[in-house]
Specification:
Elements: E1 2-8, H1 13-23, E2 30-37, H2 43-50, E3 55-57, H3 66-79, E4 84-87, H4 96-101, E5 106-110, H5 125-134, E6 138-145, E7 155-162, H6 169-193, E8 197-200, E9 203-206
Parallel strand pairs: 1-2, 1-4, 2-3, 4-5
Antiparallel strand pairs: 5-6, 6-7, 8-9
Helix pairs in contact: 1-6, 5-6
The chain binds 5-O-phosphono-beta-D-ribofuranosylamine (GRF).
5-O-phosphono-beta-D-ribofuranosylamine (GRF) binds near residues 15, 173 and 181.
């Protein structure tokens, strides 16, 4: 059984996709043991509660400085003893201490095709604003392992999404979530649960199904 801690910040639609895919068996042999939000009162925590999953809020506002918040976040993750930490719309920079505690055991969803439109300043709607400003015809989403960089760890899965005339950042964000994020995040978790992701240097390989 792959035990997940899912870290969220807001709407929790990626969390909901994971909950739903575990429920319908698309994700095998996996259980969410804790949801951690850095913001109180967000819909993601309601989604966790509705699914009977423990939800905790660990907010920087409750700590005197960033170092104390980072320590609390690490403790909050460790307490749940996860096999995999999933960043699902989590708007917090992961400190080195957490990366070191969970090497190649933290994954993130980015709403663009890394290495495009990622790194400093590219998060949430800003990603899609950049896509529309540059006029690219194809965007998408990426699931990757988290390393000490920003959106720089080994890529696990990507899925392309068409940019259409008349798209606003909000319309495009929704299409990327529906057509890409909510598909590849569950699939990446299922592949990891089945032991089918092999890290090769700074890349990954999907191993064939066991016959
Ligand atoms: C999504 O666009 C996700 O890619 C980004 O945060 C946004 C909100 O995600 N990281 P969610 O609805 O909270 O899962």
């Amino acid at each position: 059984m792959l035990k997940l801690v899912v870290c969220v910040s807001g709407g929790g639609t990626n969390l909901q996709a994971i909950i739903d895919r575990i429920a319908d068996g698309t994700i095998s042999n996996t259980k969410i043991v804790r949801v951690i939000s850095n913001n109180p009162g967000v819909k993601a925590l309601d989604r966790a509660a509705a699914a009977g999953i423990e939800g905790v809020c660990i907010s920087p506002r409750d700590y005197a400085d960033r170092a104390l918040f980072n320590e609390a976040l690490l403790s909050g993750i460790r307490e749940a003893d996860p096999d995999l930490v999933v960043l699902a719309g989590f708007m917090v920079a992961i400190p080195p201490a957490i990366i070191e505690a969970f090497p190649n055991r933290i994954i993130n969803i980015h709403p663009a095709l890394i290495p495009s439109f990622c790194g400093k300043g590219f998060y949430g709607l800003r990603v899609h604003e950049g896509v529309l400003k540059r006029g690219v015809k194809v965007t998408g989403a990426t699931v990757h392992f988290v390393d000490e960089g920003l959106d720089s760890g080994p890529i696990i899965l990507q899925k392309a999404v068409e940019v259409r005339d008349g798209d606003t950042p909000e319309i495009l964000q929704r299409r990327v979530m529906e057509e890409a994020e909510w598909v590849i995040m569950p699939r990446a978790i299922d592949l990891i649960a089945r032991g089918r992701i092999e890290i090769v240097g700074r890349t990954t390989r999907i191993l064939p199904e066991d016959k």
